[in-house]
Design goal:
Elements: H1 11-24, E1 29-30, H2 31-37, H3 42-54, E2 58-63, E3 66-71
Antiparallel strand pairs: 1-3, 2-3
Length: 76
């Protein structure tokens, strides 16, 4: 029987990995798009993004009513 590596992880962990993979292939994400795929309230996500920005792990730009976030690759 062949066991795939992903079967060693919970569905929640697989979903997080899929999200991380998707984010890695984009230059930026709009806050609302992130909220749509995570099981978190918008206010909770905003706090997490604020802390990631304060730690210089992500950058934020504002385009009208939208906040766009991207990974700060130099920090990594």
């Amino acid at each position: 029987m062949i066991l795939h590596k992903k079967e060693a992880f919970t569905q929640k962990e697989q979903n997080l990995a899929a999200l991380a993979k998707a984010l890695a292939h984009r230059n930026e994400c709009i806050g609302g798009e992130i909220v749509a795929v995570l099981p978190l309230a918008q206010s909770t996500l905003s706090q997490h993004l604020k802390e990631l920005k304060n730690a210089c792990l992500i950058n934020r730009s504002v385009n009208g009513p939208r906040s766009c976030y991207c990974i700060n690759w130099k920090a990594f």
